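User: Batch of two.

Assistant: Item 1 of 2:
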Amino acid sequence: MRFKTVLTFIVVTILALTTVIANENYSSELDNDTQVIDSKIKISKDAEFVEMVPEIVQAQTKPKSKNIDKPLTSTVKTTTTSTTATTTAAKSTTLKPTPAIALAARTLNGVTPKNMTRNFLQRVGALKVSEGFSLAEFGLDVFGDGGYDWSNNNNRMAPPSIPSHVANGYVISPQRLQEIRSHMMYWYFDQDMYGGRGDYQYDIHASMTQLHKNLNFRLPFFGFIYNYTRLSLNGYLEFSDPPEYLTYPLNFPIKDWPKRRDPAFIGIWFSKCRVGRIYPTDIDQRTPGVYFRLERDLITRTDRFGVEVRERTMWDIREGVVGAETFIPKHVVIATWKNVSFAGGIDNSLFRTNTFQMILATDEVYSYAIFNYDLLKWSSNTEAGGDTTTGEGGVPAYVGFNAGNGTRSYEYKPYSQQMVIRDLTGRGWGNGFPGRHLFRIDEQILIGSCNKDIDAAYLPLTFAPEAGNMLGGTVVNITGPCFDPKIRVTCHFDTEDVLGTYVNKNRVICVQPFLKAEGWVRFEISVGNQRFKWRGKYFVETPALATEKIFFETEDVHQKSPDQIHISWDPYNLTSNLNANIMISLWGYREVTIYPQLEYIDVVEASLTNTGSYVIYPKNYINRNNYNNDLQFGFLQINLTSPEQYSGLKISPTLWSRPIPLGWYFNKQWERRHGLKWPQALCDNWVRSDRFLRTFTGDLPLCPCTLEQAVNDKGRYRPDKECDKDSNPTCLRHKNAIHCVVSGTPVAEGAEQECCYDRYGFLMLTQDQVWGSRPRRNHNLGKMPWNEAGKVPTLSNWFHDMRPWYSCCYWQKEQSVNCETFRFERRPSQDCVGYQAPGVAGVFGDPHLITFDGAQYTFNGLGEFVLSRSVAADQRFEVQGRFEQLPKNLHGPVMATQLTAMAMRGNTTTTIEVRLRPKFARWRYALDVLADGRPIYFDRESMKFQHFDGVTVYTPTYLLNQSQVVVMFDSGVGVEVVENEGYMTGRVYLPWNFINKTAGLLGNWSFNVFDDFVLPDSTILNLNLNNLQQIYYNFGLKWMLADRYIPGVGAALFNREDGRTASYYSNASFVPNFVKEPQDFLPANRSYDVERAEELCGESYQCRYDYGMTLNVDLAHFTKIYYDTLVNIRTLNSKRIVSCGVLETPRFGRKLSFDFMPGAKISFECNEGFVLMGDQRRECMANGLWNMPEYGYTYCLREIFYTRRIAFIAIAIIVCVILPLMVCIVCGIYRFRQKQLKEDPSWQMSIPRSRASSRSNLRQLSGPDDDSDTNGTETLKKSRSYDKVYRTNEPLPGKPRIDFPAKKWDLDDEDVTSSEGSENKDTKIASDIEYVNKIGDKPRQMGRRSLRNNSSTDQDQHEDDGTAIDDPTQQEQQQQGAQQKANITTNSAYNQPPSPETDDEHSPTQLQQRQYSPTFSGVDSRNSSMNYQTNAAAQNRFGGVPVLPNNTKFFNRPPSNIPAGATAITPLRQAPAVAQQTPTTMPLTQDNGLPSPPYAASPTPSVQRSTEV
């Protein structure tokens, strides 16, 4: 019966609550837009709002909360008459007006919703109402918030708990935001509108001190991530079970974890507490105890309470914690401990209470905590030694954070467990409130409020951003000590000091100056005259790798003369006011002295609205006259013009662009100075200066031949951010490349190697193309000391290497002289002929090792061991590993270990440690990286590559979870650490200069596997790789590390927190499993596990071993992957890559392909205007050499030089061959003559004479005074050349052959008519030739000169009758007559005599007009180089005598023996064409066989004979 009664009561209660909720939901469906209350609304006289304890509020208000009780300006105006109470309520209450809507009363068993709400509010004492009560009369949204009073921040009643996500919801006003933020304590309620207890956790009491809470979202805390929490009465939120007992003072983490529980918690007041009591006169009558409120999904919430929680939390954190300027809370947890007392006190101690509050806000990536300490009256519980009355005297409460699981903790010094803990209510000054303390808690604990300054204490600074551009202008917000506006603050960046600007008691701003440094530098502040005791580390970004703040939409800025340049930026990086005015300026850099100079150039735009975009028109700056040859690259800068108008500070943030060339700005000025070829002038200047600098390529490492080799050389090369296949494939300065690598650290001279690879994975060379790999004189990281010219990070690199590339190549043609000088001489690529791939060894699994020489074995040591170390004194490095036991499996403990951490160091470098993070801490970062014990992170783009002393650390650009870390040392040693699903592998890369210089678990690298097992004392062991027990005891344990230094082993490099030592991790007595195969060490009833291992792993015994030991599929899977990867890298690096090296492209030419591997055939071409010299094709042979050129090395020669060369070669041949030959001939003739004269003194050599001597011969024949060409009988003197054979007995066509006896003329030695002449011409004449001069004139020679034109150049002028012309007038007339005769002659090439066949067809008159030259015969013409007419050959055959070409020099002058009348009638005869032979042709006789001289009969010798000379 009792059960039925209880059940009926429960059902009735549920129905009643359901009805109430339904009514409230119905009312919330109405519109709740804010509107002004209609002035016609009538307010009841009896209605009034009252404070619950108004007298106490005025009497006991704390001084620090004065602004809480200030009257608030009402947002509601009314014109109706009301009572004093109503007016007061209207002024002190912010009402939410609603539209005047006629509401129909809904009844529920005779009770309307109005009466229900009125009765409830009356019952809780929050409202005194009359019978005519209506919340709508006061403008309250009845259906949206149930008539909730939003004006009372200490309202005990919770607002409606139904969140809304509809559009066009509540929008908070600045006044309302200011009002709710004026209170330090956040909301907490002990009642709600449905009769509940609100946020009050009545289940938490002395008997049950904690309560589990599901968050249903991710809460990042101290590296871990949680979706639940436990609310404890003892002043903390915990995420795991607390320890069984506490030992005071409390120390976290628990050192003997996991033997003892080590909880993760957020402790605002970690001390044993109990619920206290309050006095009836207390201001706040909310129930003492623990409150908990959770607000989710605030980003999309549009209901009023959700919006107000989001905005209040967001602005409190943004303004209170540096670096949270963009934070938007997604979820908020509010936990409040109100009036809690200490445990163990007497009854009266229950009134001695503390009140504090914790607010957690997260966006599921970043998490923040706000600690509000409202009231602190006790500090210690009795268990910690406190007295039972006041709670004093013992160990005060613990304030701080613990990550749990034995990892790390943060204790809030100097307050935690110290007597000054009472100062928590008066310090902090978060958001201006004393007693508010803020923290960032997601990954590390960063304090966000000022701390108590204790002398001689090392207190870390909290500042943001923690990195900035080297050029300066970054506004750094600093929190640390509590600041005073009257006390100066000095900030020290590396070597530069700047003064800070006071913002509030909790914050100071310092603007980073121009720093000539990179990487992590010291950052310290000094307050007043104190020393710099607040310290931190600030990361300086190089300008080339800094976070890009100004974006160029196109590549126009790199052009020589662009029309316009589009730039954009994020306006919120300057100010949230988009109407602010900004200025854009231009800066340049140069090195003309030992001190680098960053100089201001010009204002690009003096005043511009902060819209986030701008277009630069270079034509606007063509008339500038600020020319400077040295300022060829620079930066754009954007800053606010009047920052005090927007932030109240005279400090403006500065945005810098990446380095850009300045051709777009200076091109017209350079053109006015140097002409149109100004790029050539700039390049020439650079070439001259660069030739004076030292050679830098000698120390650079050689480039790998292929892309595979480059990405697997982890010790010497890292990806180039300007051309990275994973993050930046644009490759602006290396077109056609898919990936580039650069040397990780500068060499001794500060230079940098760059290697780029094409789509086929082959090295690109500048000898082949302008986009090839280019070594750089200056590394992007610079070289110490950074403040000298030529050593500044990025700037020196651009000044010496990037700047000339633009002026020499990019702004000129690729085949220009300047570009080829840059490519071939100043920055030539280094080929890969001598490249040596590094040696590789690794450790993986649980754990398995492969040595540098390839030995494979398993070593399951427990502790810290030496993996590899150098035994050479000049080149030292150490790589150590930590092995921890694997977790239990289904069958119990696993007697095997795994790699969990690696530590490494060079000779004098920074120590780098890489750790595997705990399982639930790998949600964001998979690995922890520590540099000298300080955690570093790589999630920011500008911090992907971080350089320390002697070492560079980076993560691949495509990874955000820090699961792969590469460490590069200056010595070329590289260490790669990779994590997957909690399983780690480590690989060590060594250059060849460490051969026979290593020891440790990874063996001695000597290419001999038998000397790998070397003990610390250099003893070499011969061990069986299959005997794991022998390897374990005789070799592996000998390399175990300790905290002290061990000779030959060294000391541990690991950083251990909380006082742990090497013995915490080491256990030499641990006995692992020494059997390799699962079928040998697993029981017979686990045959399935053996089969599963075979199925998963195949041939890999390491994989089978790991699965058999752990039954973990992930471990087995990644063990196999790690093994395969390591073996593949070793195989690739051990394979010899044959390369023929650089085959230089001929200057002013090109290669048709760029391959340099065996079998490649390379052809060459030259540019227009050049001639290819040497071999046109070369081939790369299998031995790695180019074939020897057959015709010489290939080069391109200008055509004009080629012509000169041919001429010089001809001259050289003449000088070197013909001239000596002639000398030899002359010498031979001379010797021969001397010999003949010696034998016969009267001997004379017959020397052939030239034709030019025929005239003198004829003159000698006629006598000393005879100058004519005829003899006394007017017969022509026949002049013949006897250097040929003349035959007159040739058979004639159609005639019988007549045989004439051969007869040698008697002119052999003394032919007076020959052109050669004779010394005895005065005594002998030709007896068979008759010379007749029929006209009786003075004989004259009929040679060439007599046939010349009668021109001004002729020495002999004659009348028509043959007499000389002495009178100039007569001579002129004769010349005119001769010219007229010449004009009627034809312009044929040659005037030839007629053939014999046509000779008789002409009349005697015509025969008299024929010309005849006895010095030319048909035989002569056939051997002449002159170009005769077509019919010349036929005429020559029949004896026709060709004459000289028809020109004025030879043809217009008649023979001297032709009468004047004859030459005046008919012009000189043109040679007729050869007539076709017919039977009627006149027979050829001796008389007509040769042409007869004109005006005379042909002398016919009595006997025909042949003449031979």
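Item 2 of 2:
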Amino acid sequence: MTDPLQWARYHWPRLLSGAGRNDGERFYNYSSLLLCGKKPSQTPKMAGKHRVVIARARCFKEEYEKTCGTYMNNRIRTTKYTLLNFVPRNLFEQFHRAANLYFLFLVVLNWVPLVEAFQKEITMLPLVVVLTIIAIKDGLEDYRKYKIDKQINNLITKVYSRKDRKYIERCWKDVTVGDFVRLSCNEIIPADIVLLFSTDPDGICHIETSGLDGESNLKQREVVRGYAEQDSEVDPEKFSSRIECESPNNDLNRFRGFLEHPSKERIGLSKENLLLRGCTIRNTEAVVGIVVYAGHETKAMLNNSGPRYKRSKLERRANTDILWCVLLLVSMCFAGALGHGIWLSNYESVPFFNMPEPDGHSLSPALAGFYMFWTMIILLQVLIPISLYVSIEIVKLGQIYFIQSDIDFYNEKMDSTIQCRALNIAEDLGQIQYLFSDKTGTLTENKMVFRRCSIAGYDYCHEENAKRLESYQEVSSEDEDLTDTPSGSLSNMTKAKASSCRTVNNGPLKSKSLNHLAGSCLAVGGEDGPTDASLSRQAAFSSPMETDVVPDTGLLDKFSQITPQLFTLPNETDQDLSTEILYIIDFFLALAICNTVVVSSPNQPRQKLRLSSLGRMPITSLEEIKNLFQRLSVRRSSFPSLCSSKESSSGGPNAFVSRLSLFNRSKLAPPAEEEDSPLGDGAPGPSEATCLKDPETADGSPDGSLDSPLGQALALDLHYEAESPDEAALVYAARAYQCTLKSRTPDQVMVDLAALGPLTFQLLHILPFDSVRKRMSVVVRHPLSHQVVVYTKGADSVIMDLLSLASADGETLEKQQKIIREKTQRHLDDYAKKGLRTLCIAKKVMSDTEYAEWLKNHFLAETSIDNREQLLLESAIRLENKLTLLGATGIEDRLQEGVPEAIEALQKAGIKIWMLTGDKQETAVNIAYACKLLEQDDKIFIFNTPNKEACEMLMNKTLEELKKDIQRPPNGLPSCTHVPQLRAGLIITGKTLEFALQDSLQSRFLELTGLCQAVVCCRATPLQKSEVVKLVRNQLQVMTLAIGDGANDVSMIQVADIGIGISGQEGMQAVMASDFAVSQFRHLTKLLLVHGHWCYTRLSNMILYFFYKNVAYVNLLFWYQFFCGFSGTSMSDYWVLIFFNLLFTSVPPVIYGILEKDISAGTLMQLPELYKSGQKSEAYLPLTFWITLLDAFYQSLVCFFVPYYTYQGSDIDIFMFGNPLNTAALFIILFHLVIESKTLTWIHMVVISSSILIYFFFALVFGAMCVTCNPPSNPYWIMEEHMMDPMFYLVCVLTTCIALLPRFIYRVLQGSLFPSLILRAKHLDKLSLEERNEALKKWKEARTVKQMTTGHSHPTDALERRINLDPSCDLSVTTASVDSKQRDSPTFRATLDITNVSGMAMKTVSSSGHPLQNSIQK
């Protein structure tokens, strides 16, 4: 590691991924770097509406300078300061705070001789100290960013040089738009690059985006169409095309543009052709591209503009009270000015101490009073606590440290703990009133497990697979981790061990070779095996529970009837069975093909399995072999920089065949040129059997299918990199039925299907999933029928509306499809009732003419820049219609551990929980019951209306019903009995939610939800989620928290007062946008109930204490003005006056704010109702603030007048009188904190004792050394004389006792006579373990009895009501409690019949049992 270049190459991936870092090392990733903040002055320059990119070549030099020369270079700067502007800019930013401006004004005011109160230097001291501390903090943070920027900007990449006519090494900061960049395997992408060449024979490039969004699964990017077929690397000197694309923006999932050749031919560009800065090249030896966005104009840098600043509710409240203190200060200064003027007016002649002006005139009493007003402002400035802001920041840092140090938040399986990304809103965790939660991945594990399927109207329940899943619940976590291999099989465990034996992974430096550190992949596939530590980890969504699917025996029997004759000679004797078999084949082909899964091998992690071409490439002559060798030599000659270690490490026939497959392009021949075999290219040939067999398995099955040992090994040796757990679950389910996805390229997909052998589908087009269409489609050419087939999967609510109503084959198929549709719908409803996630699978057969016509229009949409999304949507709709329903799937997403208990505790804490999900109604409601969001006795209202008028009508009648239930006493109870709010739940669909969010219905919607304990919003879009959170937060003025795990939850997380991201399997988008990040939902309980409560009470009491101590001490100066003619004189030395708040009494409240614990964590967890005190802001109410100020006034009166009357008539001077006041005030303020503290540790005692000792030490040293420090004042030997006077001690003790006696008595009476819940719970912590457990048991029993006596709102027998809405709208509600034995029986039904204007009737039937019995008819 002597070469600095290799050092930088090595440390850049470590900064991004943290792979192989030591525990003591600082962890940075690319997303955290982006959050460090951007240089504000480097705002992206928009080059008009579109951006034109010209290659940086000799022939385009002038045109390049006119266009690309104005774009930003690739240098990044996330720092705010430089050496020259640090002081002025930091001061400018700090003086944006009103408090700093206020104290700056006082400093300037004190320089005016007429109103000067202190020495000029003394007045500046507090402000200088505060500004210096904050400046040091900002400087250190900015310096850390500078070092990271320097490392990144000086990383090396290969850029084409016009002068040298070759690729040379250049720093990232020197890369510009229009440069050609050549990247190697495992190298970080330095800028946003359009991919023009890849060494992959299929023209694809695999990237890993974990450094950008946290997703570890691979993603494919494609070479621009037209360049993938080139056999040689693109030559920058011959590149004459121009790129026109959209201006820089922060949308990571969108890229619009086109590449225009000199012939004016345009080729559309999309995100599939764009390599984003911060991603990593994987599984591709080398790629070449042209830079389109650089530096701060890249999507990665634009996507994060720095950390968001949120102001907590407590801080806003404190700012309001500071304004009250300012008003109090002005009142006191006005009183002082008025008193000074009146006092001067009482003199008939000019008093001797009133010095005249140089012209001989004296100030009038009115003008002297005006000047005295400003003098009093300077004197009483301490009333505004300048150190409060610094103390708050220190306390919040301490609180964050303890939250992150809590071992209960550590997730051993994920090796992660809580992340506190927002440092200034920790106290808001203790005041949450509404919680909005996503479902998938937040409440559930996001481990999608294939459970059931329906094909051609037949339901396959997979009972054996269900038993397998039950066994996973019984095994311990250690056993699960032990068997956590990519496929969960014994063979893979053996191979994993063998692979690990070849990999040296003893440290961060030994886990990678120097070649890897240099950014190449020369060692990939070498004899040492995989050496990249980051590649050895398990792919996402590949736990044994997800991958090992046990087939259904009935469906497996039908699979055994699959023969090639089904496609050639239909069996007319059993036409129905043949049709069903064809449905089954198409169904599983759709599961295997309709996705974006990347296939790799676990023995060489994340290396593509190159077997896709063998099944369709019979080598029939030596001439073909010769031609292939010629192409091989041409291809290799174009890569002189690539090492031959890969070839040398593998030999024999298998290596030879792998070489051949590298150059078998993905373009398929026309149907007429296919092989003569009835199975087309899917028929296994002799060459296939020869190539695929291992010498040790030569006696195996000749067909290479899954029935042979070799075929089984190949099926197990597949590694699927899926972008979502749903895709992975379906692909693994298809593999369980021997429909195995073998390989995928941009132009073809290979599937090994049972007896049919390997089938290679020409991949014509992919329409990816989006939240608008809610479906995904692939267009392929079937290798057997040679037809163009569209396979579609998506939500049942969408697919059912796209099915064909008429069939060209006659009424028989039309009737058959109708029956299949009805049966499948019943199966879907049954799946949803069991809490399964449902998807529908459909297909469509197109003629070549139809497809060519559609492709022509779709090409126009792809090459459009403006309004591109709308055009692509319209094109997709034209394709995805008249579908044939194949079947449906049911996938289980299990609840996370501890979710029901967490939700139960949060509801007891008074938090209203809303579930916002995109799943269908039945699935969402069933999960709501399973996680105890809805109780079995709840009264459920389901809103699924077709229009706004019906929604409004239903809201009105439901509100009336709920209000009647609240007012109506239950049977058998007198009318005077108090009945609390009825437990009700609201379920609303996305369509109805759209109506409810309109302005005219918002108030009624919020009133209705306020009467419900839980709300479930299903079929909700990401935009609707954020709108719901914003509506509740703004209209109800409540504290909101949003929690989610995916990119669709980002907007909701950002809108809420507190956003929490779950670092699950959906990447890191939610975490990057959140304020706090946890690994599981159950951690939310302790985060809110314990740390939230502590943070709120600590900071509330500390802020109140700051107001108290400042007002109490400043009032001593104010009372003294009554005895000095309101002259603005102080009875203490100015240095003592400044240091009293800045040094002597500043540390104890900070320690109090960090370490105070009013109740133990165990008690707070067992008694969630204690959290309600924070929701009501009991610790910091306006009344509490004013009582604190009154107490401060009282204590200041005592502190002043007890020494005053003690020394009245004596001959002590002004400082001899002020010294007992300062000493008594110090004892009063510190012991006041002791009374308020609920927890006193040795740290508290040491800090308080140190404050007292520092005060006496300073007073003694200052009094002994400062003879003429502040002329004409002389504090010499004052403390020394007082410490020898017994009266001094008596005054201090007596004053302290009298001042604190009322507060002490109040606290004693409060704890004895009228204790709050907090004080009662505090008493439990003092008991022994047995007594505490018994007391907690009695507490809970007493609370339960109280709730039962006042909260029995409905009898257990069914109570039926009927509400007549109008002649066209009828609502029937039946409620009943559900016994545990009656969970599967529909004991509670709510029926809604609505006929709208068009005459359409909708009926919704729901049940409160679990699982929910629900059916919908339209």
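The first helix runs from residue 4 to 17.
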